[in-house]
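agent> step 3/5: call structure_predict on target 'ClpXP protease specificity-enhancing factor' (Acidithiobacillus sulfuriphilus).
agent> reason: downstream docking stage needs a structural representation; sequence fetched in step 2, passing through unchanged.
tool.input:
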Amino acid sequence: MPESAKPYLLNAIYTWCLEQGYTPYVLVVVDYPGVAVPPGYDRDGRMILDISPRASHGLVMADGWISFSARFGGVARPVEVPMGAVVAIYAAETQEGMGFGEPVLPSEPPPPPTPGPSSTADGEAPRAARPQLRVVK
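tool.output (status=ok):
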């Protein structure tokens, strides 16, 4: 499957989960270059992330990346995951979804999402400044 299809498939399964009242989870490889997740929450180099609207804030799936903020141990943390690091997306309640081939670890990390002309005080580009495919809620 071409990598370019992955963002559309992820968005489709995400939308399906929400429409069915399910909780969308993604399974990611944390050692993949460019993955930024809080340390210590992975198991065997993989991490399951709840990307439902109640668990994540500001979810964006665009430019080959999934980004949002979520609480880990009661503290809000940013999460950045290149699409190449995603191994599966599925409904937590039924385990239905889609798996992808084991990622080939590139020698260099993919370029991060491009910030817009201005940035916030914490250095993060405003979400509206990025060309993006917003997930439908």
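agent> step 4/5: record observation. The domain at 3-103 is CATH 2.30.30.220 (SH3 type barrels.).
agent> proceeding.
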